[in-house]
Amino acid sequence: MADITIYSTTICPFCVRAKQLFKKKGVDFTEINLDKQPDRRDEMLAKSGGRRTVPQIFIGDRHVGGCDDLYELELDGELDPLLGL
């Protein structure tokens, strides 16, 4: 199964939706909460090509993007293969 990393903030509804989808699929993920670890924002910016919004989601080495991008992969049937399901 691929490693999943999600950069988030505490009150972001899009972050909640993205995490709910991963939980529904039964996959573990690493959450980096930028409210609690603000020093990791530069890391997120570098990895995401300068994107500042959250969530920023990574599956393995692939930058998926945000919540809408994640759900688009799901609708297109491309998420499960990325997750190794």
UniProtKB/TrEMBL annotation:
Domain of life: Bacteria
Region forming the signal peptide: none
Keyword hit for Transport: yes
Gene Ontology, cellular component aspect: cytoplasm
Entries under Pfam families matching the protein: Glutaredoxin
UniProt keyword Disulfide bond present: yes
Xref: SUPFAM superfamilies: Thioredoxin-like
Gene Ontology MF terms: glutathione disulfide oxidoreductase activity
CDD domains (alphabetical): GRX_GRXb_1_3_like
Domain Glutaredoxin: 4-64
PROSITE patterns on file: GLUTAREDOXIN_1, GLUTAREDOXIN_2
InterPro entries reported for this sequence: GLR_AS, Glutaredoxin, Glutaredoxin_subgr, GRX_bact, Thioredoxin-like_sf
Keywords of the record: Cytoplasm, Disulfide bond, Electron transport, Redox-active center, Transport
Protein's GO biological process: cell redox homeostasis; cellular response to oxidative stress
NCBIfam families, per database record: GRX_bact
Family: Belongs to the glutaredoxin family.
Record function comment: Has a glutathione-disulfide oxidoreductase activity in the presence of NADPH and glutathione reductase. Reduces low molecular weight disulfides and proteins.
Protein name: Glutaredoxin
Organism, scientific name: Magnetococcus marinus (strain ATCC BAA-1437 / JCM 17883 / MC-1)
